[in-house]
TrEMBL record:
Alphabetically ordered keywords of this record: DNA-binding
Domain Cas12f1-like TNB: 27-92
Keyword DNA-binding part of the UniProt annotation: yes
InterPro entries assigned: Cas12f1-like_TNB (IPR010095)
One Pfam family hit: Cas12f1-like_TNB
Superkingdom: Bacteria
Record-given protein name: Transposase
GO molecular-function terms, A-Z: DNA binding
Amino acid sequence: MIFVEDINFNSWSKGMFCKQSLDMGIGQFFTILEYVCSQTDTYFAKVDKDYTSQICPNCGTHTGKKELDVRVHKCLECGYEQDRDVAASLIIKQRGLEQAAVQLGLGGNPQDRAAPRRGRCARG
């Protein structure tokens, strides 16, 4: 299973880092990754990108916006501490697993289920 944030790369190309974001080719990488997953029967899903660095992966508390120079996630509610990027990746994983459970019929609200696309790829 592979989960990525559902990022709008078109809006990146109009922002402050327009040339840099177009040069990176990360949007093309995600397109290729999704294709490879569909060909190898690997579950691929794009999940909601909002607040991934602001939610505690341990207790689910919204810890608030952090400046980019703050590199450690600290939850005042449960005391959990982790590298900010690792904590965000755990939230992405949690969201992906929840989405996969609903789409594959393993739990969740049946009304939220969407038919998986070829190769079991899904978008959030």
